[in-house]
């Protein structure tokens, strides 16, 4: 896999946020999913970094980022705080899965920072009361991370995320990233998703939006991808054939091409 930029840490008022950065030009902020990190975006640093300033965070509780309140607004504000701390010019935010939930809320709360929005294999949130029980699939995920050895958890998540027949090196990379996820980071992000409901914010968006989904995604079923597309009828949509829930690694050329074409003026 591609070499990664060095990990840095920004000391923010709400808690530290770790990140990686490469390239110069217009800002592209990358927000990873539940079992990802700033390490997820190696190919994007290399390719998008040729023309853009690419910044990828570690979500609260991931990498060296501090844990924070498990609310969508707190996560969006942390992402905005990172952009502010780095003096990042307004640009494009790319959010994958859990990161897409944060990205949409960031675009609503800080429209001065977000000019374009890419939502990859994502949804508008689970839209449940914060004090209601988590869905069983989420409870199982947290318990698996708590009970399984890290390497076994990583391999399990890779099998459950990727399309059948995914390249062995992709499976290895996804597993290695997932095994570093902490229980605290995972549970905080899950609880944030659980109570998030971005439908009012999405309906009010007036910026260009790109939706990326994958036809072999075992995590985000087609009906959820279709529902988000129906909710954003003006958005451009790209469906990547043969990819699962990590198209940024499973189909690097297709994913980056979709993003780069969207970034063209």
How would you describe what is shown here?
It is built from eleven helices and eight strands. It is α/β, with parallel strands linked by helices. It has an eight-stranded mixed β-sheet with strand order 1-2-4-3-5-6-7-8, with helices on both faces. Helix 1 (42-48) links the parallel strand 3 and strand 4 (52-57). Helix 2 (72-85) packs across helix 3, helix 4 packs antiparallel against helix 7 and helix 5 (150-161) crosses helix 6 (168-178). The longest helix is centred in the N-terminal third of the chain and has 14 residues, at 72-85. The mean pLDDT is 96.
Main sheet, how many strands, which sense, barrel? 8 strands, mixed
Q: What is the straight-line distance between the termini?
A: 30 Å
Write out the strand line-up for the largest beta sheet, numbering strands in chain order.
1-2-4-3-5-6-7-8
Order of helices and strands: EEEHEHEHEHHHHHEHEHH
- Strand runs, count: 8
Overall radius of gyration? 17 Å
Topology summary:
Blueprint: E1 8-10, E2 17-22, E3 26-31, H1 42-48, E4 52-57, H2 72-85, E5 91-96, H3 98-109, E6 114-120, H4 136-147, H5 150-161, H6 168-178, H7 183-195, H8 199-203, E7 209-214, H9 222-231, E8 236-240, H10 247-250, H11 252-263
Parallel strand pairs: 3-4, 3-5, 5-6, 6-7, 7-8
Antiparallel strand pairs: 1-2, 2-4
Helix pairs in contact: 2-3, 4-7, 5-6
């Amino acid at each position: 896999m591609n070499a990664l930029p060095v990990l840095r840490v920004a000391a923010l008022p709400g808690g530290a946020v770790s990140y990686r950065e490469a390239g110069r030009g217009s800002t592209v902020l990358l927000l990873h999913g539940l079992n990802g990190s700033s390490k997820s975006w190696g190919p994007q640093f290399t390719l998008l970094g040729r023309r853009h300033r690419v910044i990828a965070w570690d979500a609260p509780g991931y990498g060296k980022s501090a844990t924070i309140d498990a609310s969508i607004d707190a996560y969006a504000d942390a992402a905005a705080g990172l952009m502010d701390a780095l003096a990042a010019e307004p640009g494009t935010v790319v959010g994958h899965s859990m990161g897409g939930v944060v990205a949409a809320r960031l675009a609503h709360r800080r429209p001065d920072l977000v000019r374009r929005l890419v939502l990859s294999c994502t949804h508008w949130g689970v839209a449940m009361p914060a004090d209601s029980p988590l869905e069983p699939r989420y409870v199982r995920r947290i318990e698996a991370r708590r009970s399984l050895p890290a390497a076994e958890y990583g391999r399990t998540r890779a099998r459950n995320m990727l399309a059948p027949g995914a390249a062995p090196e992709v499976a290895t990379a996804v597993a290695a990233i997932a095994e570093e996820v902490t229980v605290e980071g995972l549970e905080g992000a899950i609880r944030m998703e659980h109570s998030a409901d971005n439908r009012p914010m999405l309906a009010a968006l007036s910026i260009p939006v790109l939706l990326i989904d994958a036809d072999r995604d075992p995590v985000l079923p087609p009906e959820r991808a279709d529902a988000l597309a129906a909710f954003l009828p003006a958005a451009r949509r790209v469906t990547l054939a043969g990819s699962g829930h990590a198209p940024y690694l499973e189909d690097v050329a297709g994913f980056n091409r979709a993003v780069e074409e969207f970034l063209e003026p």
